[in-house]
Design brief:
Layout (H helix, E strand, L loop, with lengths): L5 E2 L10 E2 L6 H9 L4 H7 L7 H16 L14 H9 L1
Antiparallel strand pairs: 1-2
């Protein structure tokens, strides 16, 4: 789960995934979109963001969802994913 536009720094925003080292998190942007803002509105309000950041945000979110909710067949036992090892691997 790596993209050059998404950074994770332990001392910034509590280690949440941020956009290019800024203090804007992936979740911030997804929240604004979920509340009806368009990409252009977000770019107008946050000039540090770039149009090219959005595909990285979407790709990161899609991969995070896949990790959080992997396909589980009926034969497999349902259990919560181990996020800590994946986050450590990504932020190294």
């Amino acid at each position: 789960m790596s993209h050059p536009r998404i950074t994770i720094e332990r001392d910034k925003r509590d280690g949440k995934p941020c956009i290019r080292g800024m203090r804007i998190t992936v979740n911030d942007v997804l929240g604004w979109l979920a509340h009806g803002m368009t990409e252009d509105q977000i770019l107008d309000e946050h000039p540090g963001l770039q149009k090219e950041d959005f595909p990285a945000i979407y790709a990161f979110a899609a991969e995070a969802a896949e990790i959080a909710y992997p396909f589980i067949s009926n034969a497999q036992e349902s259990r919560p994913p181990n996020f800590s090892s994946r986050i450590e691997r990504y932020s190294s």
